[in-house]
Amino acid sequence: MTRLAVIGAGAWGTALATVARRAGSEVAIWARSAAIAEAIDRRHENPVYLPGVALDPAITASTDLSAAVSRADAALLVVPAQFLREALASFGAHLSATLPLLLCAKGIETGSLKTMAELVAELRPQTPLAVLSGPSFAAEVAGDLPTAVVIASADSALAEFFSAALGHPRFRPYALEDVTGVELGGAIKNVLAIACGILDGLRLGDNARAALITRGLAEMTRLGQAKGARAETFAGLSGLGDLVLTCCGGLSRNHALGVALGQGTSLDTALAGRRSVVEGVASSASIAALATSLKVEMPIVAAVDAVLHCGMAIAPMIDGLLARPRRSE
Known about the structure:
Elements: E1 3-7, H1 11-22, E2 26-30, H2 34-43, E3 60-62, H3 65-69, E4 74-77, H4 84-91, E5 101-103, H5 116-123, E6 129-133, H6 138-142, E7 147-152, H7 156-166, E8 171-176, H8 179-201, H9 206-226, H10 237-248, H11 253-262, H12 267-271, H13 279-293, H14 299-309, H15 314-322
Helix pairs in contact: 8-9, 8-10, 8-11, 8-13, 8-14, 9-10, 13-14, 14-15
């Protein structure tokens, strides 16, 4: 039996714990909140992030990170992208330098413009790394609905290890070596989902949404290739698959934020009261900056960044995108 520590007790961390348990792994969750840890450990439910979902009683939870990782063969890092550096600084001493990590957050760090794998490689160069991405709403995964994801690692044996520890008939991991492509797809799709939500909030129609998804995929692929990723990765689960889900699925936090903005709600108001992080907000700035540094044209991402962080009104942003010079596809 594989023993896994899941670091982070939000919706996604809790859902992945259920996946691992269904696959036959032993699972211990670390939670920042004592109340959530107690609810998971004693009531077998996460009432804050996954209310109503019954958890396997064999899943344990604690606020003691040392206890959670003491017997672990590997750990899943499920903390928001912009807090990963802080998290590693605060509890990195509890993790063996050679403990394999599966990175489950989607984003590009602001400031450094690093992917999550690049950040961990900088801070923990000896640590074996893999990343998980793909079209996967936490509530559906926890509800045991069919899901396919990608686990990417430069070490194919490590990707296979995590695939075996998590995979079961209703959660199907595919292995890949293109870590950069998988991470960029997962980060960029959140920004594009905000853009799609804005279109939907404005009721601009299905044609506009399809055009934005298609041209957004082109932007994603251009940046990926500039970073050394494979173009074909973006046609797969962690690219097109995750993009379609997040732009069209009713459970998407990023799309819901965009809808609110398109309907005239301010960003601060739209974000107020949310328990879960909307990763696309921070990622829009970091991805736009990364594109500028690599001289890659990403007009949709730049437009979302301008609305979220530079005070641009939505109407001129839409007009600017539609007025771009015609060109070959």
